[in-house]
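Work Package 3 (structural annotation) set out to generate three-dimensional models for the target panel prioritized at the project kickoff. During this period the team completed the workflow that converts sequence records into discrete structure tokens, so that structures can be stored uniformly alongside our sequence database. As a representative example, we reproduce one entry of 509 residues exactly as it appears in the project archive.
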Amino acid sequence: MGERRPAATTTSVRTLVGPLTLAAAFFVLSPSTLLAQAATTVTCKSTGTERQMCAADTSKGVILAKSIGQAPCLLGKTWGYDDKGVWVSEGCSAVFIVGPQTAVQPEPTRTKPLQYIPNAGFLLVEGDKGEMYVRLFSYVRYLNQKGLDSSYTDYFGNTHEVRQREDVQLNKFFLPFSGWFLTPKFRYYLYVWSSNPSQGDPAQVVGAGNLSYTFNRYVTLGGGITSLPSVRSTEGQFPYWLGIDDRLTSDEFFRGSYTTGFWLKGELSTKVKYMAMIANNLSTLGVSAAQLDNKLNTTSFMLQWLPTTGEFGLYGTFGDYDWHEKVATRLAAHYTHSIEDKQSQPGTNGIENSQIRLTDGSVIFTPDLFGPGITVERVKYQMSSVDGGIKYKGLSLEAEYYWRWLSDFQGTNTAGIADIDDHGFQVQSSAMAVPKALQVYLSGAAIRGRYGNSSEVRAGFNWYVVKERGLRLNAEWIHLNKCPVGYTAVPYPVGGNGDVFHTNFEMNF
């Protein structure tokens, strides 16, 4: 009996070892574990604004496993890949999975709740099926227009009152949701937008946005509402301007606006970018589908060249908050064509298309504007602009020239109206007096045309109170000379002549 026990024990151990070994092997060497072990990770970091390339085998695809930087990693915009490896730019830093097993998803990485990425916002949802970020942009403005003349006279001899405002407004509320669904290549950007000084006006509150699909860094196809790429400030830099939510008067006068359509955008090469759009009209705000004609006859094109560094600051901003250690430059051209009509409500003389004005501030569709019984119902709008800029160590100098021509007037007794040819420019200079904290700027603009000339000069500063872009205090003085454009959301009115002061506190995350 005593001699048999060791044999029995040995047999028992052998009996247990076999299943335990198999179980351990299955646990340790399960297919998902084996595939995860076989996958290769590549960490690629972009600490500045230039593109960084990380060599890798991308023949089977690439997965963004984890973002490890402060800037957003957006496929086709701030990261991508080709046959040489993975590239990142504009501050994107991340861990990527490459190699023959990238078709297998890694174990999901748990991120902290409400992870924050500047300009993308707070991460609300993250999973295998999609992501959702939420942002909020808003600002409080004190506006003083008491330095303006109380009236102005237009080219045709008509006198108009100028309201000299002094008030405080929560001027804008902008709440976008963005991310991807099912595949990082399919992206959405949807938002609620409110212009509080325009309470009661059409489009005072807007729900809008767009959908897009990124095939690669060369081609993104989008549809929905976005800004026509008619000038530099409508290329997508908002709200990263020198002033807070106010363009110079020449830019505001000539540009196209937000509209609905389809577009293609991407890169022709690392330093050359493009966008082409076909749309309903110059501006969709306040215009219903019932007021549109039945033609897609608005087109807009942009070509941008970044010759020295291949970028022009994070998000292509105005000014050099980024503090370029190497000289950054840009040149760009824009062209927009549109057949615009009056778009008024049936049975009224009210004009909702106020996008096209003469250089004296008159809306071109105003009944009897060019004489008794003469009313323009439709006009061909064409506008080109070229811009250039340079940035270096907190200093920036940027300029843009505009050329607009109006022709083919249709309506009542319009045969005698000659083609209208208008020109304008703007120049903006800025300096980071204290890096990441204090920016000062000086700008000027002019508009020249048959129906009047106008100009402006302005100076201001931005104080980034926590040395980040998310919070800033802005103060700006503007001297206007016969301003031909304006509305309640901007600090200058149509016909403004004199001085305007406004100060703003902005929150943008």
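The longest helix spans residues 4-28.
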